[in-house]
Amino acid sequence: MSLLEIRNLKVEFDTAKGPFKALDGVDYTVDPGEVLAIVGESGSGKSVAMLATMGLLPSSATITADKMDFEGLDLRTLSQKEKRKVIGKDISMIFQEPIASLNPCFTVGFQLGETLKAHTELKGRQIKERVVELMTSVGIPDPAGRLNAFPHQMSGGQCQRVMIAMAIACAPKLLIADEPTTALDVTIQKQILDLLVKLQQDSGMGLIMITHDMGVVAETADRVIVQYKGRKMEEAGVLSLFESPQNPYTKALLSALPENATGDRLPTVSDFAEAGGF
Amino acid sequence: MSEDVILKVRDVYRTYDIKGGLFKKASTLTAVKGVSLDVERGTTLAVVGESGCGKSTLARMLTMIDAQTSGSIEIDGLPIDISKTGISKEMRQKVQIVFQNPYGSLNPRQKIGHVLEEPLLLNTDMAPAERQDLALQMLQKVGLQPEHYGRYPHMFSGGQRQRIAIARAIMMKPRLLVLDEPVSALDLSVQAQILNLLADLQDEMGLTYVFISHDLSVVRYIADKVMVMYFGEVVEYGTRDEVFNNPQHDYTKTLFAATPRADVDSIRKRLAAKAA
Fold this sequence. Notes:
The complex is a heterodimer.
Chain A: E1 4-15, E2 18-30, E3 35-39, H1 46-54, E4 61-64, E5 67-70, E6 73-74, H2 80-86, E7 91-94, H3 98-101, H4 108-119, H5 124-137, H6 143-146, H7 156-167, E8 174-178, H8 186-203, E9 206-211, H9 214-220, E10 223-228, E11 231-237, H10 238-243, H11 248-255, H12 269-276
Parallel strand pairs in A: 3-9, 3-10, 7-8, 8-9
Antiparallel strand pairs in A: 1-2, 1-4, 1-5, 5-6, 10-11
Helix pairs in contact in A: 4-5, 4-7, 5-7, 7-8, 11-12
Chain B: E1 5-18, E2 27-40, E3 44-48, H1 55-62, E4 70-75, E5 78-80, H2 82-85, H3 89-94, E6 95-98, H4 112-123, H5 128-141, H6 158-170, E7 176-180, H7 188-205, E8 208-213, H8 216-222, E9 225-230, E10 233-239, H9 240-245, H10 250-258, H11 264-275
Parallel strand pairs in B: 3-8, 3-9, 6-7, 7-8
Antiparallel strand pairs in B: 1-2, 1-4, 4-5, 9-10
Helix pairs in contact in B: 4-5, 4-6
């Protein structure tokens, strides 16, 4: 059985100019132990899809789906209270801006402990021990000493490690990473991607990587979904996607990569749009 | 050969004083340590490095936003040292800058036409009709339409705004254009359009670029020469092929190793390693 199965997901936002369709009938499945990459440009609906799954969209959004199952549990019918037991425990998420995702008023140790308090039976000293253990597993040097550090005392890469520690605190079955390395330098990006892949392989959780960076896709994914303007353009294994992209939009995206440039000019997506008709 | 060097920088330092507090002694931070470089007319120098390496401080000095602490900068034969001599209109005309964030670098209450005319208004005594003509021509040149003249920045996409920022920068026909991460905030397909535009403008106007970026694949595509900075120092400086084919410094090697590879061979290798 797949871990997450979503059929025909539609998201509409009410705007002053009438309803805006952010996502138009997309299917997603993730198996346990699989890395799925959702790739697309801004406005492709890649983040909206996962925010809808997590129930994090504002009330102006209308979400409909024929099926939205997590481990056989229908996410559509769950009450808010029931949903909170799943979200943050079995499904967790990390975001693009690590420093903005942490509360500046509390120490990172306290914030990590909060997750454990909410979802586990651990108390006092046990929580502290588990927090140190988590910080060690995400590679923060001197974890016991960093417990009392505030987010502003840590670098962006360190904060992202804390966010990852928080996300894996309750051993989730599915981790959603929304552009986890976009705000980071290349060498730090490499460390964070390696860490995510290692944690995923050690624990066998499912991992959804939302990104716009084809390089990140190539380095991490098993399977890839390419989105454009709220619709799925292509879904394929990572190797076949890069080797023989089928959809004209995917072809356009790959050939717009500067490292694939052959002539003097870079082909742009609009060059392909006329020929491919999307 | 030597008269073709349009930007000549020798041993430039920039230090910032950090004020002491009740429990903290005052100290100085050296953001740029002894940078020297030459850029020839019509070529592109790429400056690569991670956050905090001093690449933007260098850009600020080249564009006369900030003064160097010591060392000499010469643009098109004109020595630049704004802490001593101030800035003349002639100096302003020689160098312009395009910033990373096209949302933050345009005044939301200023029409695009006025954005483009302002450099002319400030630096020349052209008649209004003449300014408008030039602005309309420039819109066309960067791939926008004449009807965009009266619109406000919020009516444009990120890529279009970056076109406007570029148009504003080249209104004064500068010799040197400093581009501070001009495509980092843009989508992949828009990035390709802007890179193409920059290449076209360089051919057409003989512009010289200093292109600041952290994205090695973009640098490899656009640069003639590459300079790698690390903690304010230049650790690698050479032609693109020298730097990419035979990096000398450990940091450059680390940087290359960390850049994600999107080619089929490396994906195959990764999947094989995972299956094993």
